[in-house]
């Protein structure tokens, strides 16, 4: 986030993954001058990537290519997905 000065004053939104709830992570974020907030537990509707993976997981068994091929395709296209996510309200304000 340091590369983007306009991010100062914004919150870093994190899910409740164990790595995110470490006190070291919170200290590091604060030391860099940022603030953070956690999503409520069990709230995939607030986390766009969870919505995306839900669709992928539901479609995967019905697709011709193997699941691993699908995952590789998704990984290769992640930048396009993130660009779309960045430009799509309400997530464009994150």
UniProtKB/TrEMBL annotation:
<dbReference type="InterPro" id="IPR012337">
    <property type="entry name" value="RNaseH-like_sf"/>
</dbReference>
<dbReference type="Pfam" id="PF13358">
    <property type="entry name" value="DDE_3"/>
</dbReference>
<protein>
    <recommendedName>
        <fullName>Tc1-like transposase DDE domain-containing protein</fullName>
    </recommendedName>
</protein>
<feature type="domain" description="Tc1-like transposase DDE">
    <location>
        <begin position="2"/>
        <end position="58"/>
    </location>
</feature>
<dbReference type="InterPro" id="IPR038717">
    <property type="entry name" value="Tc1-like_DDE_dom"/>
</dbReference>
<dbReference type="InterPro" id="IPR036397">
    <property type="entry name" value="RNaseH_sf"/>
</dbReference>
<dbReference type="GO" id="GO:0003676">
    <property type="term" value="F:nucleic acid binding"/>
</dbReference>
